[in-house]
């Protein structure tokens, strides 16, 4: 199965040299559950042309420091690719910014939340279990790093999970085989900690300290990697 990773953000220097780029993080996350997947990368941030839907079997949209409501010239074409992928119909998964862009592309609403920064490891309750959530779990712990949130889900979307801080943290959409997480399962603890320390001057001190400490806790990132692989395989041709 051919998975195209749509790059909408890149690790800040010097973390890119230490931990690699986001496509490599996603490959490390998903490959154990789907060793037969083949990955390609499309990076509009570097002026690369977006792929045709016929070039891949599934689309994965990464996180980004950008906001989906900002006027970057690459955002609208990425949203159109999401819509074309849904119309194909081919499976797609969004992560953090990808979660927000997917929700917005399908008619939802995203804002910079008055709840402020979400950082560190957050627990999301799973309120509805989808077939691809195998093995099932009623809770997922995973890294987050965001200020923006989906506040209105698109018509027909299922809210599968979230938290008091981020109620719409896991969505599955009616517009095609598409689902998304606000969390960052691709973040290893070491990367999440290093990224948070790099952003210390932007984060309230109390939230920063709790976030750093939370990386001592276990996460369910491997389970989420399996869920992502399951979703692609269940909906792929």
**Cα-atom radius of gyration:** 16 Å
Question: Strands of the largest sheet, in order across it?
Answer: 2-1-3-4-11-10-9-6-7
Number of helices: 7
Q: pLDDT average, as an integer? A: 97
Terminal CA distance reads 8 Å
What is the chain-wise order of helices and strands?
Answer: EHHEEHEHEEEEEEEHHH
Percent of residues in helices comes to 25-40%
Q: Assign an overall shape.
A: globular
Count of DSSP E strands? 11
Q: Can you walk through the features of this model?
A:
With 237 residues, this protein is of the alpha/beta class. It is built from seven helices and eleven strands. The protein has a nine-stranded mixed beta sheet with strand order 2-1-3-4-11-10-9-6-7, sandwiched between helices. Strands 5-8 form a two-stranded antiparallel ribbon. Strand 10 and strand 11 form a beta hairpin. It is globular. The model has no long low-confidence stretch (mean pLDDT 97).
Entry keywords:
nine-stranded mixed sheet, two-stranded antiparallel sheet, 24% strand, 11 strands, 237 residues, alpha/beta
Task: Give a short overview.
With about 240 residues, the chain is of the alpha/beta class. It is built from seven helices and eleven strands. Helix content is about 30%, strand content about 25%.
Task: Draw up the topology in text.
Blueprint: E1 2-6, H1 15-19, H2 22-30, E2 38-42, E3 58-61, H3 75-87, E4 92-95, H4 97-105, E5 109-112, E6 118-126, E7 139-146, E8 148-152, E9 158-162, E10 170-172, E11 178-181, H5 189-198, H6 205-214, H7 221-235
Parallel strand pairs: 1-2, 1-3, 3-4, 4-11
Antiparallel strand pairs: 5-8, 6-7, 6-9, 9-10, 10-11
């Amino acid at each position: 199965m051919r998975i195209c990773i749509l790059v909408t953000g890149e690790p800040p220097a010097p973390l890119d040299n230490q931990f690699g780029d986001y496509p490599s993080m996603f490959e490390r996350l998903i490959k154990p559950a789907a060793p037969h997947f083949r990955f390609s990368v499309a990076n509009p941030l570097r002026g690369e042309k977006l792929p045709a839907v016929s070039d891949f079997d599934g689309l994965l949209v990464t996180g980004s420091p950008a906001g989906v409501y900002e006027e970057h010239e690459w955002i609208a074409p990425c949203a159109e690719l999401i819509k074309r992928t849904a119309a194909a119909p081919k499976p797609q998964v969004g992560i953090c910014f990808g979660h927000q862009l997917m929700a917005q592309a399908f008619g939802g609403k995203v804002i910079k939340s008055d709840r402020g920064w979400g950082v560190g490891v957050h627990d999301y309750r799973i309120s509805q279990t989808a077939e691809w959530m195998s093995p099932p779990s009623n809770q997922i712990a995973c890294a987050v790093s965001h200020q923006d949130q989906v506040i209105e889900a698109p018509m027909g979307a299922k809210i599968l999970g979230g938290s008091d801080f981020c109620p719409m943290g896991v969505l599955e959409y009616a517009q095609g085989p598409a689902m998304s997480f606000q969390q960052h399962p691709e973040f290893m603890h070491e990367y999440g900690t290093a990224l948070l320390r790099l952003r210390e001057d932007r984060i309230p001190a109390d939230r920063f300290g709790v976030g750093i400490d939370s990386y001592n806790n276990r996460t369910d990132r491997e389970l989420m990697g399996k869920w992502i692989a399951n979703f692609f395989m269940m909906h792929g041709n």
